[in-house]
Protein backbone atom coordinates (compact mmCIF):
# COMPACT_ATOMS: atom_id res chain seq x y z
CA UNK A 1 0.00 0.00 0.00
CA UNK A 2 1.41 3.46 -0.87
CA UNK A 3 2.43 5.50 2.14
CA UNK A 4 1.67 9.15 1.32
CA UNK A 5 2.60 12.25 3.29
CA UNK A 6 -0.28 14.71 3.33
CA UNK A 7 0.48 18.40 3.82
CA UNK A 8 -1.11 18.97 7.23
CA UNK A 9 -0.24 21.82 9.58
CA UNK A 10 3.48 22.25 10.05
CA UNK A 11 4.33 18.57 10.52
CA UNK A 12 2.42 16.66 7.84
CA UNK A 13 0.37 13.47 8.14
CA UNK A 14 1.26 10.02 6.77
CA UNK A 15 -1.56 7.80 5.48
CA UNK A 16 -1.53 4.39 3.77
CA UNK A 17 -3.76 3.99 0.72
CA UNK A 18 -4.96 0.94 -1.25
CA UNK A 19 -2.23 -0.10 -3.70
CA UNK A 20 -4.21 -1.16 -6.74
CA UNK A 21 -6.79 1.61 -6.97
CA UNK A 22 -5.11 4.83 -5.79
CA UNK A 23 -3.97 7.70 -8.01
CA UNK A 24 -1.70 10.26 -6.36
CA UNK A 25 -1.61 13.72 -7.94
CA UNK A 26 1.32 15.86 -6.85
CA UNK A 27 2.91 19.06 -8.13
CA UNK A 28 5.79 18.61 -10.53
CA UNK A 29 9.09 18.93 -8.71
CA UNK A 30 10.83 22.19 -9.48
CA UNK A 31 14.16 23.11 -7.98
CA UNK A 32 14.26 26.54 -6.35
CA UNK A 33 16.02 29.41 -8.06
CA UNK A 34 19.76 29.11 -7.45
CA UNK A 35 19.91 32.73 -6.27
CA UNK A 36 16.45 33.98 -5.19
CA UNK A 37 17.70 37.53 -4.54
CA UNK A 38 19.16 37.74 -8.05
CA UNK A 39 15.95 36.29 -9.51
CA UNK A 40 13.89 38.99 -7.79
CA UNK A 41 16.32 41.73 -8.81
CA UNK A 42 16.13 40.60 -12.44
CA UNK A 43 12.32 40.82 -12.35
CA UNK A 44 12.60 44.42 -11.12
CA UNK A 45 15.20 45.40 -13.71
CA UNK A 46 13.97 43.40 -16.71
CA UNK A 47 10.16 43.45 -16.59
CA UNK A 48 7.86 41.38 -18.79
CA UNK A 49 6.34 44.61 -20.13
CA UNK A 50 7.07 48.25 -19.40
CA UNK A 51 9.90 50.21 -17.78
CA UNK A 52 12.09 48.87 -14.99
CA UNK A 53 11.09 49.72 -11.43
CA UNK A 54 13.71 52.47 -10.94
CA UNK A 55 12.32 54.29 -13.97
CA UNK A 56 8.93 54.45 -12.23
CA UNK A 57 10.10 56.17 -9.06
CA UNK A 58 11.44 59.67 -8.41
CA UNK A 59 13.35 60.74 -5.31
CA UNK A 60 11.21 61.45 -2.27
CA UNK A 61 7.98 59.96 -3.60
CA UNK A 62 5.61 58.13 -1.27
CA UNK A 63 5.58 54.41 -2.10
CA UNK A 64 2.87 51.93 -1.08
CA UNK A 65 3.57 48.20 -1.32
CA UNK A 66 0.74 45.69 -1.17
CA UNK A 67 1.55 42.21 0.18
CA UNK A 68 -0.33 39.06 1.17
CA UNK A 69 -1.56 38.40 4.70
CA UNK A 70 -0.52 35.54 6.97
CA UNK A 71 -2.87 33.02 5.33
CA UNK A 72 -0.67 33.00 2.20
CA UNK A 73 2.86 31.55 1.88
CA UNK A 74 4.32 34.56 0.09
CA UNK A 75 8.09 35.11 0.61
CA UNK A 76 7.38 38.65 1.80
CA UNK A 77 10.67 39.43 3.47
CA UNK A 78 12.70 38.48 0.41
CA UNK A 79 10.41 40.43 -1.92
CA UNK A 80 10.34 43.58 0.22
CA UNK A 81 14.11 43.48 0.69
CA UNK A 82 14.53 43.20 -3.08
CA UNK A 83 12.31 46.25 -3.58
CA UNK A 84 14.17 48.30 -0.99
CA UNK A 85 17.53 47.36 -2.47
CA UNK A 86 16.38 48.33 -5.96
CA UNK A 87 15.06 51.70 -4.73
CA UNK A 88 18.22 52.60 -2.81
CA UNK A 89 19.08 56.25 -3.44
CA UNK A 90 15.58 57.11 -4.64
CA UNK A 91 13.45 56.69 -1.52
CA UNK A 92 14.12 56.00 2.14
CA UNK A 93 12.30 53.51 4.33
CA UNK A 94 10.34 56.43 5.76
CA UNK A 95 8.85 56.96 2.30
CA UNK A 96 7.55 53.38 2.06
CA UNK A 97 4.36 51.94 3.58
CA UNK A 98 3.82 48.17 3.59
CA UNK A 99 0.12 47.37 3.30
CA UNK A 100 -1.02 43.92 4.38
CA UNK A 101 -3.76 43.14 1.86
CA UNK A 102 -6.12 41.35 4.23
CA UNK A 103 -9.26 41.76 2.11
CA UNK A 104 -11.97 41.01 4.66
CA UNK A 105 -9.69 38.87 6.88
CA UNK A 106 -8.62 40.01 10.34
CA UNK A 107 -5.51 42.09 10.78
CA UNK A 108 -2.26 40.23 11.40
CA UNK A 109 -0.75 40.29 14.89
CA UNK A 110 2.72 41.59 15.71
CA UNK A 111 3.97 38.03 16.10
CA UNK A 112 2.51 37.09 12.71
CA UNK A 113 4.04 40.14 11.07
CA UNK A 114 7.43 39.19 12.49
CA UNK A 115 7.06 35.65 11.13
CA UNK A 116 6.04 37.11 7.75
CA UNK A 117 8.66 39.85 7.41
CA UNK A 118 11.30 39.36 10.08
CA UNK A 119 12.12 41.55 13.07
CA UNK A 120 14.33 43.99 11.18
CA UNK A 121 11.62 45.03 8.71
CA UNK A 122 8.90 45.15 11.37
CA UNK A 123 11.06 47.35 13.59
CA UNK A 124 12.11 49.77 10.84
CA UNK A 125 9.16 49.97 8.42
CA UNK A 126 5.67 51.43 8.52
CA UNK A 127 3.30 48.46 8.25
CA UNK A 128 -0.49 48.86 8.02
CA UNK A 129 -3.05 46.08 8.23
CA UNK A 130 -5.80 46.89 5.74
CA UNK A 131 -9.24 47.09 7.37
CA UNK A 132 -12.10 46.71 4.90
CA UNK A 133 -14.63 47.81 7.54
CA UNK A 134 -12.96 51.09 8.58
CA UNK A 135 -14.59 53.83 6.50
CA UNK A 136 -11.95 56.36 7.57
CA UNK A 137 -9.24 54.15 6.08
CA UNK A 138 -10.89 54.05 2.62
CA UNK A 139 -11.14 56.38 -0.36
CA UNK A 140 -13.82 56.42 -3.06
CA UNK A 141 -12.45 55.51 -6.51
CA UNK A 142 -15.60 55.37 -8.64
CA UNK A 143 -17.56 52.54 -10.27
CA UNK A 144 -15.51 50.15 -12.39
CA UNK A 145 -15.89 46.83 -14.16
CA UNK A 146 -19.43 45.49 -14.24
CA UNK A 147 -20.95 48.02 -11.83
CA UNK A 148 -18.52 47.53 -8.93
CA UNK A 149 -18.44 50.44 -6.43
CA UNK A 150 -14.75 50.76 -5.61
CA UNK A 151 -13.41 51.84 -2.22
CA UNK A 152 -9.68 51.30 -1.69
CA UNK A 153 -7.23 51.75 1.17
CA UNK A 154 -6.39 55.44 1.53
CA UNK A 155 -2.64 54.81 1.94
CA UNK A 156 -2.70 53.03 -1.41
CA UNK A 157 -4.79 55.65 -3.19
CA UNK A 158 -2.77 58.58 -1.80
CA UNK A 159 0.66 57.10 -2.61
CA UNK A 160 2.72 58.47 -5.48
CA UNK A 161 3.89 54.99 -6.47
CA UNK A 162 1.88 51.77 -6.00
CA UNK A 163 3.56 48.38 -6.11
CA UNK A 164 1.85 45.00 -5.75
CA UNK A 165 3.75 41.93 -4.56
CA UNK A 166 2.30 38.44 -4.46
CA UNK A 167 2.54 34.88 -5.70
CA UNK A 168 0.59 33.14 -8.44
CA UNK A 169 -1.30 29.87 -8.00
CA UNK A 170 -4.67 28.56 -9.23
CA UNK A 171 -7.61 30.07 -7.32
CA UNK A 172 -10.90 28.29 -6.81
CA UNK A 173 -13.19 31.07 -8.04
CA UNK A 174 -10.92 33.91 -9.19
CA UNK A 175 -8.90 31.78 -11.62
CA UNK A 176 -5.46 32.64 -10.24
CA UNK A 177 -4.09 34.49 -7.23
CA UNK A 178 -1.56 37.32 -7.34
CA UNK A 179 -1.35 40.32 -9.64
CA UNK A 180 -4.46 42.52 -9.61
CA UNK A 181 -5.97 40.66 -6.62
CA UNK A 182 -3.46 42.54 -4.45
CA UNK A 183 -5.52 45.67 -5.19
CA UNK A 184 -9.05 44.29 -5.02
CA UNK A 185 -10.16 42.44 -3.03
CA UNK A 186 -6.86 42.74 -1.11
CA UNK A 187 -7.05 46.48 -0.36
CA UNK A 188 -10.75 47.02 -1.04
CA UNK A 189 -13.56 48.16 1.20
CA UNK A 190 -16.19 45.72 2.39
CA UNK A 191 -18.85 47.02 -0.03
CA UNK A 192 -16.48 46.48 -2.95
CA UNK A 193 -15.63 42.93 -1.89
CA UNK A 194 -19.26 42.01 -1.35
CA UNK A 195 -20.10 43.01 -4.92
CA UNK A 196 -17.01 41.32 -6.38
CA UNK A 197 -18.01 38.15 -4.54
CA UNK A 198 -21.76 38.29 -4.97
CA UNK A 199 -23.87 35.19 -5.63
CA UNK A 200 -24.18 35.84 -9.37
CA UNK A 201 -20.44 36.15 -9.94
CA UNK A 202 -19.44 33.27 -7.64
CA UNK A 203 -22.19 31.07 -9.06
CA UNK A 204 -21.06 31.55 -12.67
CA UNK A 205 -19.49 28.30 -14.01
CA UNK A 206 -16.58 30.34 -15.37
CA UNK A 207 -15.69 31.49 -11.83
CA UNK A 208 -13.41 28.54 -11.27
CA UNK A 209 -9.85 27.25 -11.20
CA UNK A 210 -7.40 28.61 -13.81
CA UNK A 211 -9.98 30.71 -15.74
CA UNK A 212 -9.44 34.49 -15.86
CA UNK A 213 -10.75 35.93 -19.11
CA UNK A 214 -14.53 35.51 -19.10
CA UNK A 215 -14.51 34.82 -15.36
CA UNK A 216 -16.85 37.55 -13.97
CA UNK A 217 -14.83 37.79 -10.74
CA UNK A 218 -11.43 38.15 -12.36
CA UNK A 219 -12.74 40.36 -15.17
CA UNK A 220 -13.78 42.93 -12.55
CA UNK A 221 -10.59 42.46 -10.51
CA UNK A 222 -8.54 43.32 -13.61
CA UNK A 223 -10.80 46.25 -14.46
CA UNK A 224 -10.36 47.77 -10.99
CA UNK A 225 -6.56 47.45 -11.07
CA UNK A 226 -6.40 48.98 -14.55
CA UNK A 227 -8.72 51.88 -13.70
CA UNK A 228 -7.19 52.81 -10.34
CA UNK A 229 -3.53 52.32 -11.25
CA UNK A 230 -0.65 50.02 -10.34
CA UNK A 231 2.79 51.40 -11.13
CA UNK A 232 4.70 48.13 -10.82
CA UNK A 233 3.85 44.53 -10.00
CA UNK A 234 6.13 41.79 -8.71
CA UNK A 235 4.90 38.20 -8.51
CA UNK A 236 6.67 34.92 -7.81
CA UNK A 237 5.92 31.27 -8.54
CA UNK A 238 6.65 28.83 -5.71
CA UNK A 239 7.40 25.11 -5.56
CA UNK A 240 5.83 22.68 -3.08
CA UNK A 241 8.41 23.67 -0.44
CA UNK A 242 7.25 27.28 -0.88
CA UNK A 243 10.58 28.27 -2.42
CA UNK A 244 10.88 30.74 -5.29
CA UNK A 245 11.04 29.10 -8.73
CA UNK A 246 10.64 32.20 -10.86
CA UNK A 247 9.79 35.90 -10.56
CA UNK A 248 7.96 38.24 -12.91
CA UNK A 249 7.76 42.02 -12.89
CA UNK A 250 6.28 44.91 -14.82
CA UNK A 251 2.82 46.01 -15.88
CA UNK A 252 0.40 44.22 -13.56
CA UNK A 253 -1.92 42.70 -16.15
CA UNK A 254 0.69 41.70 -18.74
CA UNK A 255 3.02 40.36 -16.08
CA UNK A 256 0.25 38.34 -14.45
CA UNK A 257 -0.81 36.79 -17.75
CA UNK A 258 2.74 35.49 -18.35
CA UNK A 259 3.12 34.27 -14.76
CA UNK A 260 -0.13 32.34 -14.78
CA UNK A 261 0.83 30.61 -18.06
CA UNK A 262 3.86 29.26 -16.19
CA UNK A 263 1.73 28.19 -13.24
CA UNK A 264 -0.84 26.53 -15.50
CA UNK A 265 1.88 24.28 -16.91
CA UNK A 266 3.17 23.16 -13.51
CA UNK A 267 -0.05 23.11 -11.45
CA UNK A 268 -2.67 21.40 -13.64
CA UNK A 269 -2.76 17.60 -13.97
CA UNK A 270 -5.04 15.39 -16.12
CA UNK A 271 -6.57 12.19 -14.66
CA UNK A 272 -8.53 9.35 -16.24
CA UNK A 273 -12.12 9.70 -15.11
CA UNK A 274 -13.87 10.53 -11.84
CA UNK A 275 -13.13 8.91 -8.47
CA UNK A 276 -15.26 7.45 -5.70
CA UNK A 277 -13.06 9.00 -3.00
CA UNK A 278 -10.78 12.03 -3.21
CA UNK A 279 -8.48 12.80 -0.28
CA UNK A 280 -7.22 16.36 -0.27
CA UNK A 281 -5.53 18.94 1.97
CA UNK A 282 -5.20 22.70 1.98
CA UNK A 283 -1.43 22.51 1.44
CA UNK A 284 -0.56 22.60 5.14
CA UNK A 285 0.43 25.64 7.20
CA UNK A 286 -0.27 28.52 6.76
CA UNK A 287 -3.06 27.68 4.32
CA UNK A 288 -4.89 25.16 6.52
CA UNK A 289 -5.12 27.34 9.63
CA UNK A 290 -8.91 27.42 9.44
CA UNK A 291 -11.90 25.75 7.84
CA UNK A 292 -12.73 28.89 5.85
CA UNK A 293 -9.48 28.67 3.87
CA UNK A 294 -9.70 24.88 3.59
CA UNK A 295 -12.74 25.14 1.35
CA UNK A 296 -10.17 25.62 -1.43
CA UNK A 297 -8.82 22.11 -0.93
CA UNK A 298 -12.35 20.70 -0.98
CA UNK A 299 -13.11 22.61 -4.16
CA UNK A 300 -10.01 21.18 -5.84
CA UNK A 301 -11.16 17.67 -4.93
CA UNK A 302 -14.64 18.33 -6.28
CA UNK A 303 -13.26 18.65 -9.81
CA UNK A 304 -12.60 14.88 -9.98
CA UNK A 305 -15.00 13.22 -7.50
CA UNK A 306 -18.06 11.44 -8.85
CA UNK A 307 -21.52 12.76 -7.93
CA UNK A 308 -22.35 11.43 -4.48
CA UNK A 309 -18.75 10.38 -3.87
CA UNK A 310 -16.67 11.16 -0.78
CA UNK A 311 -14.21 14.00 -0.29
CA UNK A 312 -11.92 13.81 2.75
CA UNK A 313 -10.04 17.01 3.59
CA UNK A 314 -7.11 16.82 6.02
CA UNK A 315 -6.81 20.34 7.47
CA UNK A 316 -5.38 21.19 10.88
CA UNK A 317 -7.69 24.22 11.46
CA UNK A 318 -5.68 25.49 14.41
CA UNK A 319 -7.62 28.76 14.12
CA UNK A 320 -10.99 26.98 14.06
CA UNK A 321 -13.63 28.18 11.60
CA UNK A 322 -12.22 30.88 12.46
CA UNK A 323 -14.10 32.63 15.26
CA UNK A 324 -13.94 36.06 13.61
CA UNK A 325 -16.11 36.83 10.60
CA UNK A 326 -19.50 35.36 9.71
CA UNK A 327 -18.47 32.11 7.99
CA UNK A 328 -19.69 29.80 10.75
CA UNK A 329 -22.91 31.76 11.29
CA UNK A 330 -23.81 31.76 7.59
CA UNK A 331 -23.02 28.04 7.25
CA UNK A 332 -25.33 27.20 10.15
CA UNK A 333 -28.14 29.45 8.92
CA UNK A 334 -29.85 26.77 6.79
CA UNK A 335 -30.59 23.08 7.42
CA UNK A 336 -29.03 21.71 4.21
CA UNK A 337 -26.49 22.74 1.56
CA UNK A 338 -29.33 22.99 -0.96
CA UNK A 339 -31.21 25.36 1.34
CA UNK A 340 -28.03 27.41 1.76
CA UNK A 341 -27.69 27.81 -2.00
CA UNK A 342 -31.35 28.79 -2.32
CA UNK A 343 -31.03 31.35 0.49
CA UNK A 344 -27.89 32.86 -1.01
CA UNK A 345 -29.47 33.08 -4.46
CA UNK A 346 -32.53 34.85 -3.01
CA UNK A 347 -30.57 37.51 -1.11
CA UNK A 348 -30.52 40.97 -2.60
CA UNK A 349 -27.20 41.75 -0.90
CA UNK A 350 -24.13 39.64 -0.28
CA UNK A 351 -23.08 39.20 3.35
CA UNK A 352 -19.46 38.78 4.50
CA UNK A 353 -18.06 35.24 4.04
CA UNK A 354 -21.05 34.24 1.91
CA UNK A 355 -18.81 33.46 -1.07
CA UNK A 356 -16.86 30.77 0.79
CA UNK A 357 -20.15 29.33 2.04
CA UNK A 358 -21.53 29.34 -1.49
CA UNK A 359 -18.51 27.42 -2.82
CA UNK A 360 -18.71 24.90 0.03
CA UNK A 361 -22.46 24.45 -0.42
CA UNK A 362 -21.90 23.80 -4.11
CA UNK A 363 -19.31 21.13 -3.26
CA UNK A 364 -21.67 19.57 -0.69
CA UNK A 365 -24.47 19.54 -3.26
CA UNK A 366 -22.19 17.37 -5.42
CA UNK A 367 -20.48 15.07 -2.90
CA UNK A 368 -20.19 14.10 0.76
CA UNK A 369 -17.38 15.85 2.64
CA UNK A 370 -15.53 14.71 5.74
CA UNK A 371 -12.74 16.56 7.54
CA UNK A 372 -9.75 15.16 9.40
CA UNK A 373 -8.70 17.78 11.94
CA UNK A 374 -7.26 18.04 15.44
CA UNK A 375 -9.04 21.28 16.31
CA UNK A 376 -12.73 20.95 15.40
CA UNK A 377 -15.18 18.55 17.03
CA UNK A 378 -17.77 16.39 15.33
CA UNK A 379 -20.46 18.80 16.54
CA UNK A 380 -18.54 21.78 15.15
CA UNK A 381 -18.29 20.12 11.76
CA UNK A 382 -21.87 18.87 11.80
CA UNK A 383 -23.05 22.48 12.19
CA UNK A 384 -21.23 23.18 8.91
CA UNK A 385 -22.86 20.19 7.14
CA UNK A 386 -19.56 18.28 7.32
CA UNK A 387 -18.60 14.95 8.92
CA UNK A 388 -15.67 14.30 11.25
CA UNK A 389 -13.13 11.76 9.99
CA UNK A 390 -10.94 10.28 12.71
CA UNK A 391 -9.17 7.68 10.54
CA UNK A 392 -8.68 8.40 6.83
CA UNK A 393 -7.73 4.82 5.89
CA UNK A 394 -10.79 3.44 7.69
CA UNK A 395 -13.08 5.96 5.99
CA UNK A 396 -11.77 4.85 2.60
CA UNK A 397 -12.21 1.16 3.49
CA UNK A 398 -15.84 1.85 4.42
CA UNK A 399 -16.50 2.93 0.82
CA UNK A 400 -15.94 -0.65 -0.35
CA UNK A 401 -13.14 -2.74 -1.89
CA UNK A 402 -13.66 -1.37 -5.40
CA UNK A 403 -13.73 2.35 -4.60
CA UNK A 404 -11.28 4.27 -6.81
CA UNK A 405 -9.21 6.75 -4.80
CA UNK A 406 -7.46 9.96 -5.78
CA UNK A 407 -5.06 11.69 -3.38
CA UNK A 408 -4.08 15.38 -3.58
CA UNK A 409 -1.31 15.52 -0.93
CA UNK A 410 -0.71 19.23 -1.55
CA UNK A 411 -4.39 20.09 -2.04
CA UNK A 412 -4.96 23.05 -4.37
CA UNK A 413 -1.26 23.31 -5.24
CA UNK A 414 -2.13 20.93 -8.09
CA UNK A 415 -5.55 21.08 -9.72
CA UNK A 416 -6.66 17.81 -11.36
CA UNK A 417 -8.99 17.72 -14.32
CA UNK A 418 -10.52 14.84 -16.28
CA UNK A 419 -8.57 14.14 -19.45
CA UNK A 420 -10.62 14.50 -22.63
CA UNK A 421 -9.74 12.08 -25.40
TrEMBL record:
Give the top-rank taxon of the lineage listed in the UniProt record for this protein. Answer: Bacteria
Specify the protein name.
Nickel-dependent lactate racemase
- Annotated LarA-like N-terminal domain ranges read 8-209
Which residues does the UniProt record annotate as the domain Lactate racemase C-terminal? 276-411
Entry's Pfam families?
Lar_N, LarA_C
Native source species: Cryptosporangium minutisporangium
